[in-house]
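Course assignment 3, question 2. Fill in each field.
Student: A.L.
Task: Predict the tertiary structure for the chain below.
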Amino acid sequence: MRWLVGWSSTATGATGPGAPGTGSYGGYGGPEVYAGEDGGRIGHDGETLHPVGSQLLWGDPDPLWAVGDWRPDEIRVVRADAQTRVAVLGTCGATDEQLRVGLFAARGGALRHLTAWPGSYTAIVQVGRRITVCGDLAGARPVFHTPWAGGTAYATAALPLADLIEANLDFGHLAALLAAPDVPAAVHDSTPYDGVRRIPPGHALILRAGAREIAGYEQVASLAVAAAPVDPDSAVDAVRDALVEAVRARLSAPRHVPDIDPGPVPGMGPAARRAARGMPVPGIGADLSGGPASTTLALLAAGLPGMPGTVLGHGTGAGERLLAVTFNDLAVGGHEAELERAGTLASNPRLHHVVVPGGEETLPYADLDGPLTDEPGASLVTAARHRARLAAGSADHFTGYGARQVLDAHPARLADLLMDRKRRHLVRPVAALTKADGSVLVPARVYGAARRLARTPYRTGVESLADRLLHRRFDDLQTAAGAVGASLAALVWGGPGPAARWLTGEALAEVSVRLQGTAHRAGVGPGQRPGDYRARAALARHAADLRILEQAAEIRSQRLHAPFLDNQVVRACRALPETLRVQPGARAAILRTVLKGSGVADLPPGWGAPSQASTAAAARAGLRMAADPLLALFDAPLLAEAGLVEARVVRKALRGAAAGEPLPLDGLADLVSLELWLRRLLARRGTCWTGTPGRARAVPAGIAPQRRAVSSGG
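Answer field:
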């Protein structure tokens, strides 16, 4: 893991026990601390408080550290003077002069300039005692904050802040993750750690001498005025330009060679030896599943100038070929057509194709051991599956994650078309659903659901969801099968999650209270159309899960790159007209145009066709294989100790799913992942800080619920 962490205090630079801003750990108890000379805080034991394994970017009175295995080129600090500077951490395509111009713009209050460079990065600006930390639009690089020592501590990971304040678990947040994961109002700005907050995507955290403010830097579509008409061709050209710049930013970065191979192993070649030791191949590579997203990135990376292949002098190809990795699931079939297309695409002389076979050992739930991640996520049960693929990849590896969320149309966008009086554009998507279902009643059902959503206020939609959770009404979850059922279930402001049916009544009531509190808050509302709102929420959830997957399946010395989640790519995709993106096959058509505009026109037949194979088959096979370990996991689960589930109910669901009952497998993945995460968190003995009294860490008392919104009325 890599993160940045710092704080803004009320101190003005004085040090010593009587300095301004001293006090307890943000009101959470603990001994007093005061400012140190190197940007840390000094406790009564005389130790300096600073993150473990960190490098100081700037010091007192508002220090900033970079923690983890950052590459030298991933950390850049540009200074205008002693009190005005900007730090950029990650892959950023801006030159030093552009960073300086952005710094001057941010000094005047213009934050959007800091988020408009190609790449994926976090920008932090210090102007005097004002600190600005910009999150990204997708949510893949979040920013967290918490009150501490009379000021505010912030980080790009929640666990370091939880260690700092010895935070307990926020069980209301955990219940909301299971009951309503796609509804931002349920989670709001909370995290799994009580007292640690996150800023929403598209916002920045502004600190002035310890006082905090959260400001948005992106315009939001209005409910009152329809969006200005956009030419589809120019919008697709903008997507192409943004993707090309995102890929070029990665290619122009310095190449990195992983740790030197310590020597041969009898019976193993260099590639197998690297994979066995968890070492990626030097250079740049990409996933090549045969789908449109991975194909687009692989062909763009292979075709752009800049020698995208292996590092000169390391391996074959001498810097001319890009490593393309295809995962072949031998345990569960159904991807034969995509594999054939991937083989055809890999005949490109600029690609070096590697096929990674995956047997039963790579099925979901096959490996329940893994590292502790910053937050829980459903990808914990599939981390071993992804790690097997990534172990054969390169030091810099392109992935197509996020393409579906930024390019496809969420079903709720049909309501947006009705609000804009563009009914005729509903004909093709509704006709496609009718063809998939075979029922003549589909058009009336879909149109009626879209019309109801277009006429339902946001507050009413949230209150309706709260009532459904409170009274355990999940009947429609049983019938939401197929494309039509999923579309009808999505034509609401928010619906219950797939794991909601297995939660206890108290946990559902907790989430219901959270939703009602949001709905009755003054000035509540997303300020967006329902389709745009649901699409942004889906993107944020996907980006958060990708962040957890990257931590759970991390390969040493490897960087995963997801250009579709870059700010500029997200902006370009959001500018696509809804009338274009709601059409069947829109994502493949857009990416085909992107490749054609970049000089790639020879694509295999059937490219872009939706895959007939489903991840549900692999999940069910994994459940059957791991039935006994999973049942043992829920003999005495921590989730039951926290009051979120009943162990016998979950065990019954696991046995039923393994036997083939039509249960929501995504919900079971959420439950298992959260249980695994809790066990790893409580088994942890280390901490992210040195110098804290007793080596303070998060959740020091284990599972100990402190309060309930149901009982407290909060």
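Instructor remarks: The radius of gyration is 25 Å. The CA atoms of residues 143 and 156 lie 5 Å apart.
Grade: pending
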